[in-house]
Amino acid sequence: MIQKEYIGFGSIGELEFVLAEYSAKRIFLVTAHDSYELSGAKGNLDKIFAGCQVQRFYDFSSNPKIEDVNKGLEAFKKIRPDVVIGVGGGSVIDMAKLINFFASNELEPSEYLKNPESKINISRPLIAIPTTAGSGSEATAFAVLYIDKEKFSIDNEFVLPDVAIVDPDLTTSLPEYITAVTGMDALCQAIESYWCINSTDESKEFAKKAIELVMKNLKTAVNNPDRNSRLAMARAANLAGKAINITKTTAPHAISYPLTSYFGIAHGHAVALTLPAMLEYNAAVTDEDLLDNRGCDYVKKTINEIANILGCKNVDEAKEKITKLMENIGLETGLSKIKTKKDIVATICDGFNQARAANNPRKVTKQALREILRAVR
């Protein structure tokens, strides 16, 4: 499917013409509770929605759960919309994707997960409008869903939004922490995509551009934001989304899910915590733990390329640069400040996502994972 995209300041105005193309009068609108208004999206869209019937859904948690999807499906049935629009961060857009996908198909979400090869019907037109610069969900054909704290991913071409409208204006009111963690999500996705066993020349080009944009602009976007840095981060997130849409993510994402589910660490922050250590770990790949069919030399060359894209001479410098960036944007770089009665290492080792880890160029055993986690304590 070829996606239409509109990127730039003021691009939210294009929605009026998009709705006219679909002759859309009934709209199912998925948003977060507060950010829809705080981002300025509501003020812009109220004018565009004049004369339309709009069913808004925002009654769901920040990490989409199967119960939330089922509530959304009930709300969807009340309006039988012409189009579905998701306005928000990655979780909001994922929720819009999930509801739109399952509303067009007879299988319950839990049943589909048991049989993902089931015949799928084409969904309603889906329009994604991000209000953060991080997940790139507007550019991907998958969506995350949690069942009893376990993460699942719906991966299907019909999940990809038909239209992406990326307007940096909607990110200008973001707090520093959200700007920081979403920006690190974009960086992690781009770096993981670059070293992923599924990488291609096209995905690497998307990832390279995203890495360069983040490294040049994230610190400014967090600490002294201006139009240029906001636009650059919006582009970076979209490019990183395009990169992982080809490759999917790898070990840092696999490790991040239990950090978010069990310890409440924001997704982008949870991923970033192990990125420097995983960069070093992947650089030490051997024939015995190699997962990339292109060979050890290829993987080591790829890791060195990442260091160079980061503006560093070697992996040690690259690790330091990523860690320094996190410090400069106000993010903790270790796990030691998590206050919990649980054994952090054991919980993560038990809960990390095997499917994402399998995309990593070097096999991540539980023993290796324990050592990596100890390194970031």
Radius of gyration based on Cα positions? 20 Å
Percent of residues in beta strands:
5-15%
CATH top level of the largest domain? Answer: Mainly Alpha
State the low-pLDDT regions, or none. none
Structural class: alpha/beta
User: What gross morphology would you assign?
Assistant: globular
At CATH level 3, the topology of the largest domain is: Dehydroquinate synthase-like, alpha domain
Number of helices: 16
Instruction: Report the biggest beta sheet as strand number plus sense, adding barrel if it closes.
Output: 6 strands, parallel
CATH superfamily of the largest domain: Dehydroquinate synthase-like - alpha domain
Kindly give the count of domains. 2
Number of strands: 8
Reading side by side through the largest sheet, how are the strands ordered? 1-8-5-4-2-3
What is the percent of helical residues? 40-55%
- CATH architecture grouping of the largest domain: Up-down Bundle
Would you tell me the overall average pLDDT? Answer: 93
Which series of helices and strands comes N to C? Answer: EHEHHEHEHHEEEEHHHHHHHHHH
Distance between the termini: 43 Å
Description:
With 377 residues, this protein is an alpha/beta fold. The chain folds into 2 domains: 4-171, Rossmann fold, CATH 3.40.50.1970; 176-375, Up-down Bundle (Dehydroquinate synthase-like, alpha domain), CATH 1.20.1090.10. Helix content is 52%, strand content 11%. It has helices at 15-21, 35-38, 41-48, 66-79, 90-103, 109-114, 176-195, 201-223, 227-247, 251-263, 267-283, 296-309, 315-328, 344-351, 354-357, 366-375, and strands spanning 4-7, 26-31, 53-57, 83-88, 126-130, 142-147, 150-155, 163-166. The chain has a 6-stranded parallel beta sheet, with helices on both faces. A two-stranded antiparallel sheet has the order 6-7. A hairpin with a 2-residue loop joins strand 6 (142-147) and strand 7. Helix 7 (176-195) runs parallel beside helix 11, helix 8 runs antiparallel to helix 9 and helix 11 packs antiparallel against helix 13 (315-328).
